[in-house]
Design a protein that fits this description.
225 residues, alpha/beta, Rossmann fold, 12% strand, globular, binds adenosine-5'-triphosphate, binds ligand LXEULUCI, dTMP kinase activity, Thymidylate_kin-like_dom, nucleotide biosynthesis, ATP-binding, nucleotide-binding
Length: 225
């Protein structure tokens, strides 16, 4: 019998440590015999990757940005995430809609009510009850002070449009995440991302073990390289 799919998103400000841990978590699930779809937003399909390049590099007004991000999300959901969940995969997604509320809503100050309307439209998918939309089963939220994230990223790569924003922008983004977490406390697993890599890994895998998704032994043997 096919195991039900699991949808896990990873969130946090730029430089919080998501990418460092996602690969290791994918390896841990694979070690348990689970198929994993590792993907990201904006992006994850050829069309959505084209939209990503525009969103991350081209100047545009806040509504245009929000519409492009949700267009990319719709394509990603229909082409990749829904089929993977139907196959029974574990879907690990580097960012999802909480990022839109945090960056476009918190960071840019875009209307949260309008984002909620777009969220309802875009995340309505076949096979779910009419009053439900697709949301991650769990959101691993890397909570980190913007000053520490900036320090970790300094000189690491050429900053994109968002990474080049001042620390005040990331304070608003961080507040946006905190607000979303307060609205869905069951879905969010808060990680103290200021800890060292090993301690961050332990917090992530503990959250997976608590849900019964990962065996303690597999969690104990893995971790970021
Ligand atoms: N716990 C940690 N302690 C110290 N440094 C860390 C830790 N986790 C990750 N780093 C380092 O911080 C930097 C940013 O990490 P990473 O790329 O994983 O962040 P990210 O959340 O994926 O960022 P982005 O969203 O901008 O891609 C990297 O140089 C990484 O090696
Ligand atoms: C999904 C999503 C992303 N963003 C921003 C956040 C980051 O700065 C970039 C993506 O870069 P990463 O290195 O892959 O993390 O895009 C956004 O503003 N709104 C969103 O919905």
């Amino acid at each position: 019998m096919i195991k039900p799919g699991i949808f896990i998103s990873f969130e946090g400000i730029d430089g919080a440590g998501k990418s460092t841990h996602i690969e290791a978590l994918a390896a841990a699930f694979r070690a348990q015999g689970r198929a994993v779809t590792l993907t990201r937003e904006p992006g994850g399909t050829p069309l959505a990757e084209k939209l990503r390049a525009m969103v991350l590099n081209d100047p545009m007004d806040a509504l245009t940005e929000a519409l492009l991000i949700f267009a990319a999300r719709r394509d990603h959901l229909v082409q990749v995430i829904e089929p993977a969940l139907a196959r029974g995969d574990v879907v690990l997604c580097d960012r999802f809609t909480d990022a839109t509320f945090a960056y476009q809503g918190g960071g840019r100050g875009f209307d949260l009510g309008m984002l909620s309307v777009l969220e309802q439209w875009v995340q309505s998918v076949q096979g779910l009850p009419a009053d439900m939309i697709r949301q991650p089963d769990m959101t691993v939220w890397f909570d980190l002070a913007p000053e520490i994230a900036a320090q970790r990223l300094s000189g690491a790569r050429v900053p994109d449009k968002f990474e080049a924003q001042p620390v005040e922008f990331f304070r608003r983004v961080a507040q946006g995440y905190a607000q979303r977490a307060a609205q869905s406390p069951q879905r969010f697993a808060r990680i103290d991302a200021a800890r060292d890599r090993h301690q961050v890994w332990q917090q992530i895998t503990s959250a997976m073990v608590r849900r019964g998704w990962l065996a303690i032994m597999v969690a104990a043997n893995g971790g970021p390289k």
